[in-house]
Structure formats: C-alpha cells, structure tokens
Write a structure and sequence with these properties.
single chain; 85 residues; mainly alpha; 62% helix; elongated
C-alpha cells in the first residue's frame, strides 16, 4: 500500500502540531501563574509575621522579661569552672 502525501494533509498535521504547542504553552503559563500566586501569598504572610515581631520588639525594647519554668525542666546545664592561675 502506498501512502500519498497531499498538501492539505501536511498543512493539517502542521496546524495540529502548532495547536498542541500553543495549548501546552498556555497550560504552562497557567501553572506558573498559580505557583507565583502561592509564593506571593507565602511571602506576604512572612512579611506580616516579621512586621508583627518588629513591633513587639520595638514595644519591649529595654524591658527585662523573666521566663517562668518549672524546676528541673531546664535545658541549660550548669557547668563548674576552674580559675586559671
């Protein structure tokens, strides 16, 4: 069986390939936009947390704060030291 290539068939195949490329590029742009929106939302949340922490530290600058912990639950270990002569 011999297959003949016609101009119309070749153009149809080229249009289908070009159409597929255009659709893939469009889907890629949508995925990229969605990722950028999520990243922007995360950055905004981080910025708000940073501003809130900045305001808290500015309000408490110079103040002493004592953290109440139960005895024996401290993570800090007291170490004896020897003075050098």
């Amino acid at each position: 069986m011999v297959a003949e290539a016609s101009i119309v068939g070749v153009l149809r195949v080229l249009l289908v390939v070009i159409g597929a490329i255009v659709v893939l590029r469009f889907l890629a742009q949508l995925a990229n936009a969605k990722r950028n929106m999520a990243e922007e939302k995360n950055q905004e949340a981080e910025r708000r947390a940073f501003e809130k922490e900045r305001e808290r530290t500015a309000k408490n600058v110079g103040k002493t704060r004592i953290i109440n912990k139960t005895p024996g639950s401290s993570d800090v270990e007291d170490v004896d030291f020897e003075e050098l002569d």
